[in-house]
Design a protein that fits this description.
Elements: H1 11-27, H2 35-50, H3 75-91, H4 97-112, H5 126-139, H6 148-167, H7 182-200, H8 206-216
């Protein structure tokens, strides 16, 4: 087993599952070089995903103590994990691909109706899930509970919320400099802008994304890069 068994999984476990699948697909080149190893990774990732607790979840076990990186959101992580499983299964011609794709649409619907308005950061992976799910939906997912238009609209909603926040910020930042994680949230907006453009061809958020990226890399009031090891200051 690549992963120990847990009674309850947080987003970290789901992301681990997705990472294992991504590794099997992208790093090991399953279809051409080592399909047996890739299927092993897929089996491990599927095992983790299947153990996720999705009823009466309560407090997410992201770390100990729980006050360190706490979060309530988990449907977005289920969407992300299921989407990665579906993509890997498709690459391996595994018949479970469509089941995972339908599961991804289910969890996307749960997320979209949850009222969670957060954006891509260390607590929220919805933009990553939406990006790949939109491409799955474009190729057809029988029994899908959401449409490509709906998940793309949520990406646009996330970006527009950032644009609106930046308009009233003296630093033109979408993330509040008075709160935690301003660097990761700013990079989240920059990444989401690129994902949105790739999906839609719409460049309306390009300048916004570049602005958020540049802020974290030193184009700010302090002239200081917010990333250790990047930049001279």
């Amino acid at each position: 087993m690549l992963f120990p068994r847990f009674q309850r999984f947080s987003r970290w476990a789901i992301v681990l599952a997705a990472a294992a699948v991504t590794g099997s697909v992208l790093v090991h080149g399953p279809a051409r070089r080592d399909p047996a190893l890739a299927r092993t990774y897929l089996a491990e990732a599927a095992s983790v995903f299947a153990q996720a607790k999705t009823a009466d979840v309560g407090e997410l076990v992201t770390a100990f103590p729980h006050a360190y990186y706490p979060e309530d959101s988990w449907a977005d992580d289920m969407e992300f994990g299921a989407t990665q499983l579906a993509l890997a299964a498709r690459a391996l011609r595994d018949p479970r691909s469509q089941d995972w794709a339908r599961a991804a649409t289910h969890w996307a619907k749960v997320y979209l109706t949850s009222g969670d308005t957060d954006t891509l950061n260390v607590y929220n992976t919805s933009a990553l899930g939406h990006y790949d799910l939109a491409k799955l939906l474009r190729s057809g997912v029988p029994g899908a509970e959401v449409t490509e238009r709906e998940v793309v609209a949520d990406l646009r909603r996330q970006l527009q919320s950032g644009v609106d926040s930046a308009a009233s910020s003296p630093f033109r930042t979408a993330a509040s400099v008075e709160q935690f994680d301003v660097a990761t949230r700013s990079f989240g907006f920059a990444a989401t802008a690129r994902l949105y453009r790739d999906l839609t061809g719409d460049r309306r958020y390009d300048a916004f994304g570049v602005q958020q990226r540049n802020f974290t890399l030193g184009a700010n009031a302090w002239g200081t890069s917010l990333v250790i090891g990047v930049g001279e200051t």
